Every structure is written in C-alpha cells, then in structure tokens.
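Complex record, two chains
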Amino acid sequence: MYFGNKKALAVAIAIVMALASLPLLSNNVDADSSDRCYGNESAVTMKDVDSILKELTGKTLDELIASLTDYFPGYEISIVPSFESDFALERNTTKSGSEYTIEDHFGSYVNLYLSSHIKGNLPDAGTYYPKDDEGIWEFLFRLIQESKNEHTDDFEGFLGLYTDLTVVSKIDLNTGELTSVDVRFKLMIVEHEEANFNLDIVESKVSEEEDEKVESITFSYDKTTSESNIYTDIGVKMDIEGLKIINDSDTWSVNPKIKEHVYRSVVSSDLANGLWQSVLEMVDPKVEKVKARLPELILHIISSGERMLDLFDTIKSLTGKSIPDVFFVADLAATKYTDDYGYEYTILDLKGTETTLYFPLGGYALNTSVLIYLVPSSILPDAVKDILYVVFTVLGWGTVEIGDITDDKVMQSKCENVFTYVKNIMKYDEEYTFKIPAEYLTIGIAGLLGSFAAFVLIWRRWI
Amino acid sequence: MTPEERSRAIAMWGIALCLFAAAAGWMFMRFGQAWSVADLPESENITRIVPAYIITEVAMIPVGGKLIDIYGCKRILVIAPIIFIIASMLCILSVSVEMLVVFRLIQGIGAGMVLALAFTAVGRLYAPTKRGKCHELMTGSFAFGSLFGSAIGYFLTETFNWRCGFIVLSIIMAVGLILALKNLPEDEGSGTKVDMPGMILVALLFGTAATYTQMVNADFDLISLPSFAFVAAIIVLLVLLFRQVRTSDNPVIPIGISAFEKKLILLMFMFSLCGLGLIQYFFKLYLTYYDFDIYDASFMFMYLILGAAGPSIIGSRKVFVTGIRPWLLVGTVLVTISLIASHFLASTGVVYFALSLFLFGAGLGCIVTEILCSLQTLVDKKDMGQHTGNLMAVRMIGILVGNAIVGAYIGEIVRSNYVPTIIDLNITTDLVKQLVTNLVKDVQYAADALNTGLMSTLLIMAVITALLSIVAYKIGKEDLDCISASMDQNEE
C-alpha cells in the first residue's frame, strides 16, 4: 500500500511537471528565431562640448571664458559648467504568427549644471532706459562701462532634459500592410536656479515687420531661487488601412487611410504659456473667437502649478464632448531600398510634396546629415541646420548605425541603463505628485478623529 | 420674535448651511474633474466621482425622511452631517480614484439625509402658514449650493488643492450642525419599528434609478441592452416595494395618497425634468458658446436665482391663501414662455441669454417651493418626513432624468451630424496648423451641437410644460381645505 501511494505520488508529480512544462514548451514554439534586437548608445561629455565649440568658434570653453576677461578687464569672472548626457536607440522586432511587431525605443537625458561668479563694477539696482536706436548688447555694454560700484553676481543653475519615446508598429505579414502605430512620447524639462543678481529686460514690438526693441533693463541684487518644470505624456494610436510596406515588386503605390486617436494628453507645467501661445499663432485668424475662449481656461489650469492635467479629458469634462479622432489620407509612392550597410527600408514618398519617409524593416543606419536637411526650412532655419550638421559631425553622429545587438549583451545593457535612468527620473516626478500633501494628511486624520469624538460627545449630551 | 422663535430660526439657518454644503457637494467636482484629481494615479473610474455622490444622495432622501418620522429631527441632524464630515475627511485621505469614489458614496448618504432633514424639519417645526419663509431659505440654500458648487470647487482646486473643497464643505456642515443642534427644539419621533426590507427596497429603487440616469449616456446608449436591463430592474424593485409597503405596518413610502397629492408629485417630477434638468445644459452652453470661464458661467446663473426669488418669496407666503393652482398656472405659462424665448434668443447674445434665464427662474419660482408648501399642508406631522422625502427624491430623479434625456438627445445630434475631419497629407503643407485648426473646429462643433440639441429640446419641453398647465388647471383646492380645517380645529 505504502509503495502504491509513492508510485501514485510519483505519477502525479510527473503529470504536474508535464503540465507545468507545457507553457514553457509552447513559449518556445512561439519564440521565433527572427526575433531580433537592434540598438546603439552614445554619451556626450564635456570633452565633446569642447570639441563642438572649437569647431564652431575656434576656441574651447576655457578659452572662451578666459576671453571674457579681455572684454571686461578688472573683473573677476569664473564660469564652471558641467555637462552629462546619454542617448540610446533600441529596436526589438518580434514575429507572432502573421503579425510582425517593431518596438522602437528612444531614451535620452541631458544634465547641465552651471556655476558662475562675476565680481566687478556693475550697474546699481534700478531701471535703465536705452538711447535712441541703441541695440540690446550695445546698451548693456554701455551700462556696464558706465557703472561705478562693485557688485557680485553668483549664479547656480541646473537644467535637465529627459526624453522617452516608444513607437510600436504592427505589420500584417499576410498582406504586407502596416496596420497600426502606437506612439507614446514623454518629455520632462526641469530647471533650477539660484542667483543673487537679476536682469529684467522689457522688449516691445512696434510692428510685425520690425524686430523687438528693448524698452528698459532692470538690475536687482536680491537673492532669488526659481524652479520650473514641464512634463508631457502624449499617447497617440494610429489605425492604418491600405499602407503596404512589404511588397514583392520594387515600387508600388499606396493610398493609406490613417485614423489618429489621442488617448493620453497629460501636461504638467508652469512654463507653458509661451508654448501654447506659439502654437496658437500658427492657427488661422478666423478661429479667433474660439481661440480666445478655450485656451484661456486650459492655460489657466496648465500654468497654475505642478499638477498634471489631461488636456483632452479636461475639455471633455468641461464640455461633455470628447475630442474626435482625426483621419488622414495620402497618396504615396513606395520603393524598396537597401543601404550600404545592407539594411532594408521602404521609402515612402508623399506625392505632390518633398516629404520622404524612411521605414526600416529591421536594423537601420541613421544618416543624420540627410535627415536634418529633409526638415523643411519653415520649421528649422538653414543656419540652425548647418550648426546641427557641424555638431553631429563632431560627435560622430553623421551616420549612426542601429545594428544588430541581439547577441551583444553589453550594448543592450548600455541602452537599458539610459532607459532606466530616464524612467526613474520621470517616475520620481509622477510619484511625487501622488502623495497626499502633509497639511491635508494632518487635517484629514485630525478631522476624522475629531468627527468621531464629536459624534460620541454630541450623542451623549443631546440625544 | 419670542426667544423660542428666534432659537428655532437660528436652527433653520444652521440646517440651511448644512443643506448648502450638501448641495455644493453634488456639483463641486463636476467641471474639470479630470484636472481636479490629477494628483491621484490615473484611473478609468474618474468619471464615477460625481455620480457616486448623486446615487447615494438620491437613494437616502426617502430613507432619511422616514427615519426622521421615526427618530425625530435631532437624531438625524447629528447622524447625517457627521456621516458627511467623516466621509469628507476620508475623501481627503484618498490615495486612489477608487477610494475617492467609495468615500463619495458614503458622503452622498449623509447629504441625502441632510436634504430630507432640511425640508422635513420645516414641515415638522412650523405651522403651515409659517412654513413659506423657511422653505424659501432652504430652496435658496439648495439653489446657491447647486449653482455655485462648481465654481466654489473650481476655485478651491485652482487656488489650493482639490482636497481643500472637502475641508471647506466639512467646515460649513459642522458650523450648520452646531448652530442647528444648539437651537433646534426637541422633536420626538414616532418611535415605531423600522421596516428594514422596505427601507432597503426604497433605497435600492431610487439608487438604481439615479445610477441609470448617470450611466445611460456615458456607459451605454438609451436604446441598448444594459439600458433595458436597468429599466427592468427598476420595474422589479418598484413591484417588490409596493408589495412590501402593502404588507408593512409602518410603510416606508406613503400609500393611499389623494389624487391631489399624486398630481403634485407628478407636477414636481415633470417640472424638475423639464426645468431643473435643463440647467446643467444651460451652464454648458454658456461655457462653450459664450465664455469659457466657470466663474462667469456661475455668475450668469444669478439671473436665474434673481428671477426665481420674487415669485418664490411671494408664492411661498401666499400659497396658503390662494392655494397652489394659480401659482402652478402662472408658473407653467412663464416656464413655457421662457423656454420658447430661450429657443429663439439664448444663442443670440449674452443679454438675451440672461433674460431667458431670468424668465426661466421666475417660472420655476412659482412652482417648486409652492408645491412643497402645498403638499406639506396635507400631511400630518408624524408622516411629514415620509411624504417630504418622497417628494424631494422624486424631484431629484426628475432633474437627473431631465439631464439624461437632454444628454442622450444632444449626444444623438453630435453623433449623427458629426463629419470626421479628413486631412489630405498630399496637399497639407503645414500639418501642425491643420491639427490645431481641427482641434478648435471640433470644440466649435461641440458648442454648436450642444446649442442645436438644447434649442430643440427647449421647444419640446415648452410643449410638455404647456400640457402640464392642463394638469395644473384641473388641480383642486385640497390644500386650502386642509388649512381651513386645521384653523377650525385650532379655534375649537
């Protein structure tokens, strides 16, 4: 009997183990040998910044700072910058049945610290007005030259810029069509300043044609601390019909219909006024009536503090109506293309315009010099493009290869470190706001206990 | 004024403060709620924060009324505001939207009982001819709380934190409680046994009806399976409740009421549906069509309150002399005219919008308080809570049904007329400009759709109100008979 029980137990264990291993087996079956990981990571240091400056101005940072003393002899000038940044691009491709999924992930951070100390003759606290037709630099230079008293200007500043972009694209391998793209973009800018010197420049614009003119400059030497932040989290889902990007022939035409749906539009900011205004300035004047009404409230909310606001949800809660989806149509010429590194792309040319999209199907080589000059000049002026070209070239980003790193655990780990760093910074910001403010926690607990006590007392005395 | 009268008047002011807090609690998270609780983790249930309060509030009005009959005003006065305050404190301590929804449900229980208490206490503590002033105080308090609740909540959230609203409401409720408790005269209840199954059924019935009105446009369409399921559930609960009250020794809702009272309840329901149910949409219309400013929109409703004040002050005092009929007739005519005027004028300019609201308020001012005063003259003190609670619950359901019907109708207009924006990438040179223009166009469309929907609804409501004048005309003079009978008794 005893033996029989052991035997039964052994059989039971064997069955359980077999059942338990089924999912493992099926996972293995699902796993496709074509699942790949592509990526690259690049850090920028102070040394790189020095190289860029040298290329652009002919001087290193230290040389530039030293040259300031030539302009302002007798002044004690010390500027100590510190810079760190890292960028990572990773692409994971998986195949499950006929569905091919491409998950692109871009993460980056830039941390800039700046400490400066200037001692010498500076204008006394007060407001100064320029002479006729005096430019801002001319005016400022004159004020400094004319100043008689010694002042100290100490400044400590930090600027952090964090980006997290995830794009998930799905392709139906049966039809070769790109069926959906899900974009999730998070951006955070943090700024902290401590200074004992402030400069308030008031400018005005007489007409649209003329440049802004300085009206006054106010100097003050009060100690100030300021903190600002922008946090955005935008989620856009695009359902696509008729965009064949994998085809047997070398060229073909497609007329995709894209349904765009914003499912997340969170903004948290105390700097957003200018941003929203600049977006509105691009809007046709005939929508002035609505323009003047809606943004007032939204702006009011956005600029009121550090809390997060879902723009679309807020519009919905105020009007009872959600913002509808937007549909896009296009007429595209698609072409197969293989670059010098052997990576395959589908090039999509939008007919009637100069817009060209490169859709890589696996790994890819980012030719930034080409990409920069593809951006229309109305968005990025040519002068800025030239500077960016120099910057990218110096950094060695002329061509960035997002190569196969499926077996390169070191590179995967480097990319992961950047993503984790950015995620942790943003998580800290998001979680911070979830805490109950201390004063409300105290009031809540005290109120709760007080209400119970009051209830007992009232009941015993009056009832 | 004798010291006793003064004391009673202070108690009424205290209860009115509690009612103000309860009414403001309904509306104070309505607008911009997504922003209001934006420091809580993201949740799909964010849209449940306002309905949660309304559901239990409506469910507890008839229950609260009946409990007042059994235990007297004073005990309910202690329990209801304390529930509200405790729930408010718990709301402050919420760390998730789900917690907030649960605590809002509890808060609504307190608010519902306060609402029943406010109008029942007037009936229980004052003679019929002296109730007018107090009812006016309560109705005014309720109107101010409801109409300015959103602005108050918005201001507190904007200036401090959404939690601050709960603190302010709790303080108002606590001040009202203290004032009322110290001055409210002794008011013993009947002490009869509580019909627990009946209480549960009536709470479930009104709660389900309120839930239905809150979910019908947001979670499912009016013509849909869940909608029919809700209606079926309401019918089943109604049948079960009537079975229960027939067999109960102490029924939770009044049975065997006169045709006169039935007409009053019907008129209260219909006027709430046609009149008060529209107010929220007037608010939204103003927000989307005129000025996207909550404070301006709230201020605009001063015209409605101003319009209502005059007829209401006179009506609540004179209804005991004239009877309810002339007031209802004048009210129906004014509401009908105001609805037609709104249809033609409301969207033509802010002045006309204000005028429409003023007329609308004047019509409602002839009806709401007067019905309440008239109904309470028919009822014995011992059953005051039961009758008043039911009338007020029916009134709230009327408002919510009105909201739901108008919402469904406007939703249908939005759906059927909306033409999705299609942007042709081949001819678009400035995509950002196109997208922002599209966003603005959609907001304009929402305003236009709301305008179109509300304007047609106004005409339909005007026709219904005009028909209600027939019911009003046919109403008898039972209230006057009851007053003269009670006066005869006093003389004897």
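Note: Residues 278 and 451 of chain A are 51 Å apart (CA to CA).
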